[in-house]
Amino acid sequence: MLKNINPLLNPDLLQVLAAMGHGDSLVLCDANFPAESVARKTSHGSLLRMDGANVVEAANAVLSLMPLDTFIDDAAQCMEVVGEPDAQPIVKQEVQAVINQYEGNGFILRPVERFAFYEKASASYAVLATSERRFYGCFIFTKGVIPPEV
Question: Taking residues 144-150, what's their average pLDDT?
């Protein structure tokens, strides 16, 4: 155990978060996402797991350490509901609240069509699978920078 580190952040995930650079993306996905096959295509090349946690808990843990990219408009993305592009599932609202907690109100979750989401996920740095069972609990966060101390 480490002080001030969310205990859901296991050593493998901490190493990945530290290794990611500005502009690298992390996928947080639900239990139905094809996580293993997508993760094999990523820069990291293997699946990270946060078993027993839902995607909101995972987002809270990850965003407690990782800043979002302020240089792009889509640093926080979510899978769009098929056939309902304007739908706002509860899981999306809850993850948006976590983003707001850590990053303020400047980051809006941008919906991405399902198959385009799979492509973006495959091009990400890593995939983190959770035990989330609610549909459309899939998100991509792009890492930003931590400014120098003044």
Answer: 92
